């Protein structure tokens, strides 16, 4: 039987309250959101916080909204809620593609968007999703709020710019005309990715005007591949160029061999899934612009 | 710390350690052993119960997190008048063999039918995709849930 080490427990009722509690208990305290990464780590004693600050009752963190041309997703939004959100799916179908494949439906009832990003596991799907669509993290501390692009949010495996005493309160994404998609290969239903790729495209006529590529579980720096994005922008949106962008993406990642597969296989997946995600995003772009 | 949890409609007040997991609270403190405990790693789904309106894996929820909330376990499925159609479906269609996965499967199935009264085979398989059964090969679980869906629809027609 796996039992966490002892800790003190506090339920926060607001962001201010949570920040106060984090300040009171100091650096050995941790926020718990869905707990679906933290509690398993505590059971294995890989994490032994002295105090847990529960933010599940912080109502203000639970909303998905559109404000000033930004889609804003509160840190406590559950995976299941993002999956079923019409407004999120309408602007960024990549969320639906990815959320359908994150864990299983019961885990998705509990795990949160903020927890996923703060966990910063190299296999976390949403890290690559938000990197592809250039999301921004809204972080709050004693001094007020700051906004950090997701592409600068991760400082290493399991590490982010969120400092002791700070809270991720939301992720926001500028709403603009674009199309997006996510492709993942997993060993079985509900498993973490062997590899996955997210893509976003905006076209100007037949020319790629904006491209975003996010990669999961293959050691891409900060979960995205600027070299492949730069290659695409300014050129035609063709299958050949998407395949080449995939090759560039594969060259710029550093997968590690593990029980999910060897390095060359993961590199191959990175290339193939990048090209497929770009293809799927392109199809959505055309679908949308033919309707209009 | 002291917690108040409403389980299957009854309020229970207990003094617990913050590190106590919900599954052990239900089984060891409340003696509601219908909820099973298997992998301990949020993978098998035998520990699934409802927390408020949704199924969760209770081996990965702290009992203190349920303070002030409602929990529904397999013991709360039947309403006194008889078995829930989901339970009856598992009985009719041989939806269990050893029965270890069954409480979790039924809790998820109940939630599925509440949200989607006429699920396809694919919907059912997707809903329980985070739950393992080592006996049935899932075929009869799918049939059991379909049985429940069809009989619930029929019941509603009779009542209407
Ligand atoms: C069986 C299983 C399968 C899974 N499969 C996948 C998968 O395929 N793909 C995938 O991407 N993920 C998967 N996950 C992980 C899951 O998506 C999330 O990583 C997990 O639920 C984390 O979210 P949480 O809300 O549970 O975070 P918690 O476990 O509560 O927290 C995780 C970390 O983030 C910190 N934290 C949480 N919220 C905040 C905040 N607002 N501000 C500051 N710090 C915060 C915590 O202190 C902790 O360090 C799986 C999980 C399980 C259990
Ligand atoms: S015991 Fe909870 S998922 Fe296996
Ligand atoms: S009936 Fe034995 S595990 Fe499902």
UniProtKB/TrEMBL annotation, chain A:
Signal peptide from the UniProt entry: none
Specify the FAD-binding PCMH-type domain's residue ranges: 2-178
Supply the Pfam families for this chain: CO_deh_flav_C, FAD_binding_5
A single MF term (Gene Ontology): FAD binding
Q: Which domain of life is it from?
A: Bacteria
What keywords were assigned to this record? FAD, Flavoprotein, Oxidoreductase
State the InterPro entries in the record.
Answer: CO_DH_flav_C, CO_DH_flav_C_dom_sf, Diverse_Substr_Oxidored, FAD-bd_PCMH, FAD-bd_PCMH-like_sf, FAD-bd_PCMH_sub1, FAD-bd_PCMH_sub2, Mopterin_DH_FAD-bd
The protein's name is Xanthine dehydrogenase family protein subunit M
Q: Tell me which species this is from.
A: Amycolatopsis acidiphila
TrEMBL record, chain B:
Q: Where is the signal peptide?
A: none
Pathway this chain belongs to: Alkaloid degradation; nicotine degradation
- Annotated GO MF terms: 2 iron, 2 sulfur cluster binding; metal ion binding; oxidoreductase activity
In this protein, which residues make up the domain named 2Fe-2S ferredoxin-type? 5-56
Task: Note the Gene3D superfamilies from the entry.
Answer: 3.10.20.30, [2Fe-2S]-binding domain (1.10.150.120)
* Pfam families per UniProt: Fer2 (PF00111), Fer2_2 (PF01799)
Top-rank taxon, per record: Bacteria
Q: [2Fe-2S]-binding domain location, by residue?
A: 73-146
- Key words, A-Z: 2Fe-2S, Iron, Iron-sulfur, Metal-binding, Oxidoreductase
Q: What is this protein called?
A: (2Fe-2S)-binding protein
Natural source organism: Amycolatopsis acidiphila
Ranked from the top, the taxonomy reads: Bacteria, Bacillati, Actinomycetota, Actinomycetes, Pseudonocardiales
